[in-house]
Amino acid sequence: MLTMKDIVREGHPALREKSAEVEIPIREEDKTTALALLEYVKNSQDPDIGPKFGLRPGIGLAAPQIGVTKRMIAVHVEGEDGELYSCAVINPKITSHSVQMTYLESGEGCLSVDRDVPGYVPRYAKLTVKGYSPDGEPVEFKLKGMPAIVFQHEIDHLDGIMFYDRINKENPFQPPAAVPFGR
Ligand code: UDB
Ligand code: ZN
Questions:
Q1: Are strands 101-104 and 178-181 parallel, antiparallel or unpaired?
Q2: What is the pLDDT of residue 35?
Q3: Which of 53, 75, 169, 181 has the fewest CB neighbours in a 10 Å radius?
């Protein structure tokens, strides 16, 4: 099982690399990695398991964050209507998105970043993501709200992009031409 010692931090080269596509059909080794990412986000939010192993509660995790530069992510997050997005996605790809942007009013953090970086991070308000399940089935997600923000944050990791790369340097709290989301 993955713990905080498996999660690489700022300065690790994997966080700045462009990750490679996972070969289809999916090899057993890649499937195991994808399922380990999902297990981490689930465990980290479990009131018994999380504290016991000192896991920082996460809603998403990308393979480069455990030093594996392959295109795999996992999310465990609730949408506005209470629907749970709990899945690992291989080769996730944004196939369409809104012109409208959004941002988390509280800003973003990252499991690989041990400091606060204040500011708004512009994200697409709505998007469609296609990819594969760990079993090799094609999957498609139509996303808005928090799940939309998490998928974009995780897919950015596959391209070596950190959330603070997207914060306005001159004025971090310049509201992007966007609809704010969240608290
Ligand atoms: C997180 N969690 O998991 F608005 F109920 C963050 C951390 C870095 C603070 C642990 C988080 O934002 N939780 C959250 C936010 C809410 C409401 C709520 C819970 N990540 C995942 C990560 O680092 N993946 O690489 C960072 C998030 C920032 C925006 C999306 C992902
Ligand atoms: Zn992150």
A1: parallel
A2: 98
A3: 169
Q: Is 154 a catalytic residue?
A: yes
- Among 2, 37, 59, which residue has the most ligand 1 atoms within 8 Å of its CB, making it the best to mutate? 59
Put simply, whether the predicted model's pTM sits higher than 0.85 gets the answer yes
pLDDT tens per residue, range 52-65: 999 999 999 999 99
76 assigned ligand-binding residue: no
Q: Is 47 helix (H, G, I), strand (E, B) or coil?
A: coil
Q: How far is the CA of 37 from the centre of ligand 2 (A)?
A: 13
| Ligand nearest to the CA of residue 161, numbered in listed order | 2
Q: Please, which pLDDT band fits residue 32 given cuts at 50, 70 and 90?
A: very high
Nearest CA to ligand 1 atom 4: 182
**CA distance readout (Å), 63 to 4, 34, 35, 113, 176:** 14, 8, 11, 15, 29
| Nearest-angstrom CA–CA distance, 163 and 26 | 29
